[in-house]
Amino acid sequence: MRRLFRLKGDRPVATQARAIATRKGIVDAAASVFVRHGYAGASISEIADEAGITKGAVYFHFRSKELLARAVVDAQDELATQVRERSVAGSPSAVAMLVAMVRELGVLMRDDVVARASMRLAVEVPTGELEDVGGTYEAWIGPTEHVIGQAVAEGDLRAGLDAAALARFLVAAFTGMQTVSVATSQLEDLMPRLREMWAIVLPGIVAPGREHIIPGLLRRA
Amino acid sequence: MRRLFRLKGDRPVATQARAIATRKGIVDAAASVFVRHGYAGASISEIADEAGITKGAVYFHFRSKELLARAVVDAQDELATQVRERSVAGSPSAVAMLVAMVRELGVLMRDDVVARASMRLAVEVPTGELEDVGGTYEAWIGPTEHVIGQAVAEGDLRAGLDAAALARFLVAAFTGMQTVSVATSQLEDLMPRLREMWAIVLPGIVAPGREHIIPGLLRRA
Question: For residue B35, which of A60, A140, B125, B182 sits 20 to 30 Å off, Cα-Cα?
Answer without folding.
Answer: A140
